């Protein structure tokens, strides 16, 4: 089983770019991306909508910790270079007129996949964690899971702090260390939040199939490496992800 997964990832990696910026950053609604919230306001305002049917599996305080940790992971290299100061994370109501990011967790019929979307009016990023999301893997159906459901023995805060300080820590490494199933870990909250917040900041999917549609060719590396934004097989940023987010902040810093 593990072999098949590893092979699939190798195939993806060989066809992936390491980082790229979203084409939409050139459009008039670009100010909605988190790169601008961080640069212009030193604040990211976010809200949650967790469907009643999946509470307390996707417990708000746990997912909120994971989300803020993913913000910190993306901002760490940017702060280290002095491009932003301390960015404040404010959890607010979804009706907030200054909302930057909305996270919806629950069964979903309209958006069949997990993903990050751009809501032009009133203007914010949307991350949808579809709890109906299922991957067929041979005879098994794999449900989308909460990180906490997988690693109940793991101290979440400690784990997240460790991930924020790591570089290129892969899902396989974690699965082996925590003795959890690799595929379940892959389809779980933290890995997906880290990838989707990358989109919310302004980075594109760099798997080969997505590059032409979503990435700006002027802001795209030709290096073929695995990264959070290419094969998404990591729980911490890789050096390529760090290069991509740094380029993004340098590009828009006034
Ligand atoms: Zn993506």
Mean pLDDT: 84
Cα shape: globular
CATH third-tier fold name: Collagenase (Catalytic Domain)
- SS summary, helix count: 10
Low-confidence stretches: 1-14
What is the CATH class name? Alpha Beta
Secondary structural class: alpha/beta
Strand order of the largest sheet: 3-2-4-6-5
Computed CA radius of gyration, to the nearest angstrom? 17 Å
Tell me about the largest β-sheet. 5 strands, mixed
Helical fraction equals 40-55%
Q: In the CATH hierarchy, what is the architecture at level 2?
A: 3-Layer(aba) Sandwich
Subunit arrangement of the protein: single chain
Strand content: 15-25%
Structurally, the number of domains stands at 1
Q: Alpha-carbon distance between the termini?
A: 50 Å
Number of strands: 9
Characteristics:
254 residues, alpha/beta, Collagenase (Catalytic Domain), 5-stranded mixed sheet, two-stranded antiparallel ribbon, 41% helix, disordered N terminus, binds zinc ion
What does this structure look like?
With 254 residues, the protein is of the alpha/beta class. It has one domain: Collagenase (Catalytic Domain), CATH 3.40.390. It is built from ten helices and nine strands. The strands form three sheets. It has a five-stranded mixed beta sheet with strand order 3-2-4-6-5. Helix 3 runs parallel beside helix 5 and helix 3 crosses helix 8. The N terminus is likely disordered. Bound molecules: zinc ion. The site of zinc ion has 3 residues, from helix 8.
List the helices and strands and how they pair.
Blueprint: H1 2-14, E1 20-22, H2 34-41, E2 43-50, H3 60-80, E3 88-91, E4 101-106, E5 115-119, E6 124-130, E7 134-137, E8 140-143, H4 147-150, H5 156-165, H6 171-178, H7 182-186, H8 189-201, H9 208-214, E9 215-220, H10 239-252
Parallel strand pairs: 2-3, 2-4, 4-6
Antiparallel strand pairs: 1-9, 5-6, 7-8
Bound molecules: zinc ion.
Zinc ion is lined by residues 195, 199, 205.
